[in-house]
Design brief:
Blueprint lengths: L10 H32 L29 H16 L5 H9 L9 E7 L7 H11 L4 E4 L8 H9 L3 E4 L12 H19 L5 E2 L12 H12 L3 E3 L3 E2 L9 H9 L13 E5 L3 H16 L3 E2 L2 H6 L10 E2 L4
Parallel strand pairs: 1-2, 1-7, 1-8, 2-3, 4-5, 5-9, 6-7
Helix pairs in contact: 2-5, 4-9, 8-9
Length: about 325
């Protein structure tokens, strides 16, 4: 029996084959990895479907609060403060604010408006102003125009104390004796002088002798038209203290000034009281009147304050004898 011849493997060829095979495997692995990476880079990322959400809740904001229009009281106090600063003797800001606190009116409390005609007069008006300042009150002065230039100090002090200045014609003229044009000049000169010297707007007119024509006649018609044009009112009075009567003493003036009800049945609250800053007896009576009425709960206010806080209010062209 013949024996098969055993095949002999060449080691060199075997090693070379192993090497080529290994290299081929490596190439295949790298190629596979490369192709897989390209596939991943080209594939689109999965996009999740949008989730339905509720409508956004609107944020509720309140409507802007409108800036309120300045009231008459705001403008009035601002005007007083201007004159307190311009002409007052306040040492500092605390003193200014302390004085301004005395200018506030309580509409719910009783009030009365004392008025002084024909001034200013040296030695008399300044005493009235002393009483005003000492007691923290206010009054109204109806001044003659021809007194303005020679009494500027008193007028500045009036304004610094919150008092009101009214028009009493230039020469204390009976307007019933004037034409409409003469009336315009006689009253207008006072307004102009107060405005030019102090920047003050006069809002009240008191006719000398309380004469302003009968209802419907030419004098009253012309006066009312003038007052409407200049945003002014005519001021009569509720009660006179009769301080110009020669037989009236300080005691008698005092008694009339504090009467709760006068001989015509008119009460004191809401009244416009007529005085004159001309004689010492008026000063002496007023010095007693003020503490007495303050003790009864009265506020001493200007005529404009009395009218503006009244039920009817202030109206240009009206003729007033009281608040009601």
């Amino acid at each position: 029996m013949s024996k098969k011849k055993k095949k002999i493997v060449n080691p060199m060829r075997f090693a070379l084959g192993i090497t080529v095979s290994a290299l081929l495997i490596v190439v295949i692995v790298l190629l596979t990895a490369f192709l897989a990476g390209c596939f991943r880079s080209e594939a689109k990322p999965a996009v999740s479907e949008p989730t339905a959400s509720a409508e956004p809740t609107p944020v509720l904001t309140s409507a802007p609060t409108p800036t309120p229009e300045p009231t008459w009281e705001d403008a009035h106090l601002a005007e007083i403060e201007h004159y307190v600063r311009a002409y007052g003797n306040c040492a500092d800001e605390d003193a200014v604010q302390s004085r301004m606190k005395t200018m506030v009116v309580d509409p719910a409390q009783k009030m009365v408006a004392f008025t002084f005609d024909d001034g200013p007069r040296t030695g008399i008006t300044d005493q009235v102003l002393d009483i005003v300042e000492e007691n923290g009150i206010r009054v109204t002065f109806f001044v003659k125009g021809d007194n303005i230039a020679s009494h500027e100090e008193e007028l500045m002090r009036m304004l610094s104390l919150g008092c009101e200045i009214g028009n009493h014609t230039w020469m204390h003229t009976n307007i019933e004796e004037l034409s409409a044009e003469e009336m315009r000049e006689e009253i207008g000169k006072v307004n102009d002088a107060l405005r030019d010297r102090f920047g003050y707007t006069c809002r009240l007119f008191r006719p000398p002798y309380i004469k302003y024509g009968e209802k419907g006649d030419a004098t009253r018609t012309a006066l009312v038209a003038l007052m409407e044009e200049w945003d002014m009112a005519v001021i009569n009075h509720t009660r006179s203290t009769h301080d110009t009567h020669s037989d009236y003493t300080a005691d008698m003036i005092y008694e009339r000034g504090v009467l709760e009800t006068d001989e015509l049945g008119k009460g004191l609250s809401g009244s416009i009281i007529l005085c004159h800053d001309k004689q010492q007896k008026t000063v002496d009576a007023f010095r007693r009147i003020v503490p007495e009425l303050l003790s009864r709960g009265y506020q001493f206010v200007t005529v404009s304050e009395l009218l503006h806080y009244s039920e009817d209010g202030f109206h240009a062209g009206w003729i007033y004898s009281s608040a009601n």
